[in-house]
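Objective 1.3, modelling of assemblies. Example input:
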Amino acid sequence: MNALTLIVLAPLAGAIFLGLFGGRLGERLIGFVASATVFISAAASFYVFFARLLPLPEESRVIHDYLFTWINVGAFRTDAALLLDPLSGIYILFITFVGFLIHVFATGYMKGERGYWRFFAYLNLFMFMMLVLVLADNFLLMFVGWEGVGLCSYLLIGFYYDKTFAADAAKKAFIVNRIGDFGFALGVMLLFLKAGTIFYFDDPARGIGGAFNWAMQQPFESLTAAAIFGGGLTTIAALMFIGATGKSAQLPLFVWLPDAMAGPTPVSALIHAATMVTAGVYMVSRASSIFIHAPAAMLIIAVVGAATAIFAATIGLAQWDIKKVLAYSTISQLGYMFLACGVGAFTAGIFHVFTHAFFKALLFLGSGSVIVALHHEQDMRNMGGLKKYLPVTFWTMVCGWLAISGVPLFSGFFSKDEILFNVYSSTQFGLVWARVLWFVGAVTALLTAVYMTRLMVLTFFGERRSSSGHSHGHDHSTPHESSRAMTVPLIILAIGAVVVGYLGIPEGLSGGGIPNYFERLLEPAIATHAAVRTAGNDVEAGHSLEWILTVVSSVIAILGILAGWRWFRTKPLWEPPKILEEKYRVDEAYDAAVIQPIKAASTGLLWKFVDVRIIDGAVNGAARLAAAVGTGLRYMQGGLARAYVAMVVLGALLIIGYFVTK
Amino acid sequence: MPGHAEIFGIGILSWVTWLPAIGSLIILFFNREKNDRIRWFANVWIVICFLVSIPLVTGLFSMGGLIRGGPGYDRALAGLQFIEDHDWIPLIGARYTLGIDGLALVLIMLTTLLGVISVVCSWSYIREKGREKEYYVVLLLLQSGMLGAFVSADLFLFFIFWEVMLVPMYFLIGIWGGKNRLYSAIKFFLYTLVGSVVMLLAVLKLYFIFPDVVRAQRPQVEATARQIAVSQETGQVNDRMLNLALDAMRRVDDRNLPSGYVSSTFNITALTSIGPHIKAVFGLSLVIWLFIGFALSFAIKVPMFPFHTWLPDAHYDAPTAGSVILAGVLLKMGTYGFMRFSLPIFPDAAADPSVRKVMITLSIIGIIYGALVAMAQKDVKKLIAYSSVSHLGFVMLGLFALNPSGINGAVMQMINHGISTGALFLLAGILYERRHTYEIAEFGGLASVMPIFSTIFLIVTLSSLGLPLTNNFIGEFLTLRGAFEARVLWGVLATTGVILGAAYMLWLYQRVFFGPVTNPANEKLKDLDRRELWQFAPLIFLIFWIGVYPDPVLSYVRPQTNTVVGLVQPDYFRVGPSAERNLAESVPSEPTAPAHSQSSEPDARAK
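Predicted structure (tokens):
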């Protein structure tokens, strides 16, 4: 047991303490306990990462922390054991850091809410589960965190449980995630069947073998549909990716995330933007040694990622709820990350996860600040002109806006640029795929800049619009800037949104002058394969190309902002196409195609017909028959000698007949 | 050192078994007007019964000559411990033989614990309903009947207990039940009785062929007896159990038997020893017929699809305590029977591809069908009852996966279902006591009215849908993994049940607890009082304990599982778990210890 355990257990202790005693404590103490446990976790993370992991030689940067053997049955074994390597290291750094800021923000945001203690108990529990997910040293323990964060998401989406839509959204999130988990679980089982282990790496001290070591020795599977159903690495990878589509809200399982905005805004920032939803990217990168051998699965990932990116971006263009815009934006950005993973640029994907955590958390918290200032108004049609009332919120959100749009020198620019470059220069799916995927990515980048500009314009610029017929009476009061507990985290995140990109300046841009710290750090934790050519392992070829692509994407970003600015400054309330506003009616389609048939079949067919009519009918029929026979037998014992004789003869004849015909 | 303890010269298993019955006898002498005294007595007595079962795990200190203690159950040994063996009916060779293996042990602990909870939870319900004296008499008798079935090491004795426990349950439903109680009680009784009759025939047939098989294949039968008595993990031999079985075999040809003694036996170990050799002497079809005889009875009890329709009715009309026991213990009788009798005594039938296919198919249908029908229910209790059909489907699936993962998972699920579904019925009972209805539509928004109750309900719901770190996850995952190992398609199909499980449980939770309070009758419901709260404490504790650290439970069960797998799939441990993979083409040569190569890093840093 070492400091890794502390990282995980501190938030759990907070959750248990608040869960049991929180109801009797004051708000200040609750907020302090919840933030303090995450702070301990963050401090321990920074310590372990910088003081313990980095001093190790590059090729052996792995720290194990074995607690106990969890399940041991036959040949199957899993441990409760933690593992820190550069990949999980980066994750715990931003999870605990951003998590801590959001906890602090929430102490202000949730002020006076009923169930304050419950909120922070759940939030602490979430931190625990997320850290377990990331620090697990085998797939089943990862699955614990995986479903655990789903539970916390359920609890927090349904935080306002007396609101029907919140309760609906919570249930939907859990069940849709369960569908994804179904794939993940099957993938893990298949992995065990093939590899005989579900640990990531060898640990000779415990006598366990690692699945990734096994995977690296497997042949490179073919890029065919047959490989997907072949029961090999491609099947494992495809099944695991189903899990990722659930947790990370990709097509076709994205439908829960927009509804998840029913939860309090800090939850949207922490769980549904910065951390939990990126778990799918983590899992795919973690299992990169499996995925790189499965090109068919990789192509699926790239295509799903690209399709989700553009699909969600178009919807984001047409939403009026400020949080819904950000939700679709998150889905779209997650698609970007998967696009990167799909072409084998896991490092670029993780880099985007990292920068996105800062600017998207910032944008959500900023929107939360706006929502609080307007007394829980989320409709952008009722906003406008807030710039002068909420200066801190406005300026910090400007940083987030420029970062996500990919304006040069902001963090999102570097990560997005690296993804697009990697997609463009990928070769394993052939030139056509590379160009098509790049084109989709570029268009998405343009749309991103447009809808974010729309959000900013509608919220902060122009005239203040207030809703008509609003009964609160707050309409004409002037909105006030939020308290320090909320603005300080915003400022810190804004600084992050600007600068964290410099950790990973693409080598092509700096000409190798500034090292790409991010990539160098992650390199040992990410598997590569000669057949999966990414920019990372072929630097020389791409310098000039990278410059060209960078210029192109910079132009796209600026163009998008200018177009959005011109359009929405003049027509802020422009009605977007109905089909976009209605989100392509996917929810309705699922309801009609899946949910209603299941409901109808289970009630009408299985219960009322099979169970009641057929089975119970047979049982009751048998009982009635027995009763009838009993009644009949009663007549047989009527005391009539002739009848007895007749029966004896009949019986004898039957028996004789049986033996004769036999 | 096998577990052993005696109190007043009587073995502890007898105490555990008969103490509840003694309690019900004592209650008979109470004045029926003195309801408070009866209630207090029953509550205290059932706690004593639970305490007496604890030494089975912990061992017992010797105290003077009256209490001769000994160690608790020894996990290093396979097979029966705490053995008691006395003459009973020499005429037919039936003996009073008690003994428990690890499986029986965990089920006994579950039974004594749920016994306490079922008595405690009846406190106010039965005060309202009346006939308290008879109620406690019946409840305690039921407890003895169930414990007797678990401790029996003699098939005849087992059968007696198996039949006996039907009767109290029948009265429990028929007298203290809901509005359709007579229909439900009779349906329960007849369903189970039909199964029992068939089982009796199979028991007798098995009894009569025993001497023939021993005579024809004595060395092989004795070898099997030794195999059963050896723990695969430690290699230790359970001498006491082995000797009893060998004695029974010796009697077959013993010409010096005292008069009145017969040459056959009901000793379960001895009967299990002839199991693998019946086929050689009498052919496969007899094995399959005997298997069916037992299986039908057990399948009705489980209940497996399509024999399940008694369950929703029985649950719906049973009083809360009855439902808790029915779900928690009585259904486990069926799965226990499969694990204890059907699989080990008739391995050739259980491993027969077509028999197995039928059993697995019915299990998977049960899982999905139970879940779908649960989703359609408009009534809390019926929903939970159908969810039981689904959960027990998992147990059966795990058992017939015939590998360690599946069977261990199945046993875990037996226990977990007892804990979680027991708790669910308790919770439903509390709703009923407050509102006198189980109708889901009557509720809504209770989370704001009864916060503690809704928290506990949520924990149990999450456990029931198999969330990691709760008990059901361990069992479900192992079961599914076992099924997946046996045949990928089985695993895939059954896993869909997990999705549906989340759907119906969360939907139920939402309809009862979330949303605004719409029904004025719910506005002033009382949250849990202290007695109600404390009865959940052990269950909640177990939910998390088993979920986080299942090894203590698994370690009791593993030796038995290994024995069963060794009998049913003799090649399993020799060839390794890859024996029947149907994706065998690309299996690595060393499935359990792969990739111990020189390069311990996963990446191709050598690029």
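Chain B touches chain A through 81 residues (CB under 8 Å).
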